[in-house]
Amino acid sequence: KKIFSHDQVIRFHTLKGLPVHRESCVFLRERPQSSSDILRKTPSIFRDLIRYRGQTSPLMELEQQHLALVLIVADRNPRAFLVISPLLSKPELLEKVSSYSWAEIKEQLQDELASLIRRESDVWRGFIQRHADMVSKESLKIIQKVLKSCVPGS
Predict the structure, then answer these.
(1) Most CB atoms closer than 10 Å: which of 47, 63, 80, 123?
(2) pTM flag (> 0.85)
(3) Would you say 10 and 82 are in contact if contact means Cβ atoms under 8 Å apart?
(4) CB count, 10 Å around CB of 69?
(5) HSE of 76 in the Cβ direction (CA atoms, 13 Å)?
(6) pLDDT by residue (tens digit) across 100-113?
(7) pLDDT in tens, 22-76
């Protein structure tokens, strides 16, 4: 807390109402800084230490490649995020594709996230009906696409 000025910047998190293992969900107290960010004030130590070299947000990049879902925790200032990905609990899958391009990584690993949603599709439907406001736009598209192919009650 003394270093980053708030509690536990990155930690595993259990999300009530969703069948996601603690190892597959990470709480980020701030969005990591990307090289394309325009900083209007001095970045926090967290954002200064954890940087992403790319033109988009690292969280958006994970969503676009169908590797993770991003939920927004709006009651924090600065805004916090929950990142849900089965790859957090299976680092060996990421290790196998670490030298591949984004397109190849997406092709190899996108089914992991879909199967996470598909396993408990009814619970995800209920969560989205109650909490769609906290799910980012791209993540909402991913969830809806997977749920369209699932039969309710199965």
Answers:
(1) 63
(2) no
(3) no
(4) 27
(5) 17
(6) 888 898 888 989 99
(7) 888 888 877 666 656 556 555 555 555 555 555 667 788 888 888 999 998 888 7
- CA-CA distances (angstroms) from residue 19 to 58, 71, 110, 145, 147? 25, 15, 19, 18, 15
Element housing 130 (H / E) = helix 121-131
Cis peptide leading into 58, omega within 30 of 0?
no
Token readout for 76 is: 């924090």
Whether 135 and 81 have beta carbons less than 8 Å apart is answered as: no
Pairing mode, if any, of strands 51-52 and 33-34? parallel
Residues 63, 141: Cα–Cα separation, whole Å: 10
Q: How far is CA 5 from CA 1, 131, 142, in A?
A: 5, 29, 34
Best CA proximity match to 51, nearest among 30, 63, 28, 35: 35
Could you tell me if residue 17 is left (phi over 0), alpha (psi between -120 and 50 degrees) or otherwise beta? left
% of the chain with per-residue pLDDT over 70? 75
> Is the pLDDT score of 1 beyond 90?
no
Helix 137-148 vs helix 121-131: crossing angle, to nearest 10: 140
Nearest to 24 by CA among 82, 96, 71: 82
Sheet containing strand 69-73, strands side by side: 10-12, 25-28, 80-84, 69-73
